[in-house]
Amino acid sequence: MMSIAKEKKVVIFLDYDGTLSPIVDDPDCAFMSNSMRLALNKVAQYFPTCIISGRRRDKVYDFVKLNNVYYVGSHGMDIMAPLKCSVNASTSFHEKAVDEKVIEIRPSIKWDKGRALEYLLDTLGFGNNGDAIPLYIGDDKTDEDAFMVLKNRGEGYPIIVSSIPKDTKASYSLRDPSEVMCFLLQLFRWKRSSSADS
Ligand SMILES: O=P(O)(O)OC[C@H]1O[C@H](O[C@H]2O[C@H](CO)[C@@H](O)[C@H](O)[C@H]2O)[C@H](O)[C@@H](O)[C@@H]1O
Questions:
Q1: Atom 10 in ligand 1: residue holding the nearest Cα
Q2: Which of 8, 80, 20 shows the shortest CA–CA distance to 47?
Q3: CA nearest neighbour of 120 among 161, 85, 155, 151
Q4: Cα(38)–Cα(90) distance, rounded to whole angstroms?
Q5: What is the CA(19)–ligand 1 centre distance, in A?
């Protein structure tokens, strides 16, 4: 993957519950660890990074509290981009600046995590030009739509988070959020060292 990634732009998509935070009994206590937050912040410095959750977008932001990632809530219905990122304002988004310095985009059609992934890739300028390596990491059934999109596009890495074998469209797996964190840190270190070399 690292050799392919030298030529292309890695774009990271992550689910929240079960991927960035462990599954716990009380949904209001699904806190992300500080070490995971640091890892996420690091990769987001080098790669466009998007969190796509079934939760409301503001709830996910409350847990993550980073301003350099995209937040996609309600299974893709509600998208918030960091202002710094290059959102193409000429496409047909409903767009408005809000207090926390974000652009809010609300698609109005039938939507799921797979469609949100395609929409964001388009928005970031990676429609179907083969210039991106999208990684999608998720643990539940709603993430399968996104795995399917990557399969159909024939590009990227659909990665399921599971410690047991599962019926899935993903081609790769990580066991749990701690392995997700290690993976993110490896990506960060690889990019940092390859940037220093060039
Ligand atoms: O798309 P996600 O970010 O994975 O969100 C999916 C649902 O996650 C939450 O429920 C799950 O996690 C809870 C906390 O660990 C757990 O208690 C629950 O059993 C899981 O289903 C959240 O509460 C839902 O609203 C999300 O749709």
A1: 27
A2: 8
A3: 85
A4: 33
A5: 10
Q: What is the separation of C-alpha 9 from the centre of its chain, rounded to a whole number of angstroms?
A: 14
The 10s digit of each residue's pLDDT in 147-171 is: 999 999 999 999 999 999 999 999 9
> Helix, strand or coil for residue 73?
strand
Opening angle at CA 63, ends 156 and 187, nearest 5: 30
140 lines ligand 1 (CB under 6 A): yes
ipTM comes to: 0.97
pTM for the full predicted model: 0.86
Strands annotated E in the chain: 9-14, 49-52, 70-73, 78-82, 95-98, 102-105, 132-138, 157-161, 172-174
Q: Which CATH superfamily is domain 7-78+111-191 in?
A: HAD superfamily/HAD-like (3.40.50.1000)
Task: For residue 97, report the distance from its CA to the centre of ligand 1, in Å.
Answer: 29
Percentage of the residues of the chain whose pLDDT score is greater than 70: 83
